[in-house]
Amino acid sequence: MERKKFYVSIASGEISQIEYSNNDEFIIHATEDEVVLLREKMNEMHEASMGAFWRAHIPIMPYHNDKANDKYDAGITEAYQMLYELGDEQAKDHIKSMGILEDNHM
């Protein structure tokens, strides 16, 4: 499959072939299948963050015992791993500088 250039913003959850505004946090070169997989990971992160938001309103449930937070943390690590693998040199350098994948294989 042919790889195409995509602009990715983790903050807004956007993956686009068109660069505009602040959607160029990361530039990747990916196949359509890889973009679908990245989109699924970002959707899972969004769902987990909503669960964590609602959990935050229950004072008797501690943060460290929250499956939604654990799921979000795992999802964001997986998303950054994909961005690292598919990203251009600037994306790879930025992700390295963040240290988010230090425990994983880069």
UniProtKB/TrEMBL annotation:
One GO molecular-function entry: hydrolase activity
UniProt keywords (A-Z) are: Hydrolase
Q: What is this protein called?
A: Hydrolase
